[in-house]
Design a protein that fits this description.
302 residues, alpha/beta, Rossmann fold, 2 domains, four-stranded antiparallel beta sheet, 10 helices, 14 strands, globular
């Protein structure tokens, strides 16, 4: 499907993307990750031929990018923008026709997607009358209504409450079953863990971690303990058996020097915290992210 090799893009003296390579196949959900300013959006725009790379090759089904390729791609940009005075369904139909969908068919599909996103009653409303979350739904419909072979989403969960995040997740997984390739960039590591087959983590324009999510988690071992608790957990960072600690208000993820010390750790907690859950697991992607990139950013806590 999509193959990107040694992508490089420089702006004046700033190297925004340096040596990024990735392959995305049909029926795959691929996560493009990184802290703010890492080069994710520039990578996406270069892949989509919105800006030209300085070096590297990009092919779609073995061929260079062309006009036919563009019509086979759906794209949700990071910067949102709709015609605010236009009616919702008219807006959807207009953008669909730009992708080669006949108006009558676009209207039929638009009705179906508005119903799926639970906003069919807003079809004749003006875009400016919608909430931020519902405007986001319209832009998602625009990106997928022409039934793209490759769907590229930059921060698709932005502006969605937890209920609508679940709705979007279910929709994307259904689209994946139709053999569509999906790339999405997000800071929400929990969503990546639930959905992605493969990931590429970039930092300062360069890839620092890539491959199968399952293999990456195995690579980082099984010395991680997740704890739900009540009480003050700040002392957990200072325990001698703890190598690394991410401690939140009522949750923590600890990496131990040796997982055999987990019993000793549990004994230390007794009398200090009320333990709701104590689980030995593979490290979360959130923990791996912080370990690889460093505490330059703060991904959403579990």
């Amino acid at each position: 499907m999509l193959n990107v090799s040694n992508l490089r893009k420089e702006f004046d003296t700033i190297v925004a993307v340096d040596g990024v390579s990735l392959t995305v196949n049909r029926g795959e959900v691929f996560g493009l990750l990184g802290p703010n300013g890492a080069g994710k959006t520039t990578t996406i725009r270069t892949i989509l031929n919105i800006i030209k790379p300085d070096e590297g090759t990009i092919t779609f089904d073995g061929l260079p990018f062309n006009e036919r390729t563009w019509n086979a791609i759906g794209y949700l940009p990071e910067e949102r923008g709709l015609y605010r005075k236009s009616k919702v369904l008219n807006t959807i139909v207009y953008f669909a026709t730009l992708k080669g969908v006949e108006p009558k068919e676009a209207r039929r599909r638009g009705h179906g997607w508005l119903e799926r996103f639970e906003i069919l009653d807003r079809a004749q409303a003006k875009v400016e009358e919608l909430s931020k979350g519902n405007q986001q739904k319209i832009q998602l419909i625009i990106s997928l209504l022409h039934q793209p072979q490759l769907l590229v989403l930059d921060e698709p969960f932005s502006g969605f409450d937890p209920v609508n995040q679940i709705l979007l997740k279910d929709i994307l997984l259904d689209i994946r079953k139709q053999n569509t390739a999906i790339i999405f960039s997000t800071h929400q590591m929990e969503q990546v863990e639930k959905m992605c087959d493969n990931i590429c983590l970039i930092n300062k324009g360069r890839p620092v971690l890539s491959g199968s999510l399952r293999q990456i988690k195995q690579q980082y071992g099984k010395n991680s303990v997740h704890i739900d608790f009540e009480g003050e957990g700040g002392f957990l960072k200072d325990l001698p058996m703890v190598k690394k600690a991410d401690v939140y208000q009522n949750y923590c993820e600890l990496e131990l020097h040796d997982i055999r010390q987990s019993g000793e750790l549990l004994a230390k907690l007794n009398g200090h915290l009320l333990i709701r859950r104590y689980e030995i697991v593979e490290p979360s992607l959130n923990s791996i992210f912080l370990d690889v990139v460093g505490h330059q950013t703060s991904p959403v806590a579990p």
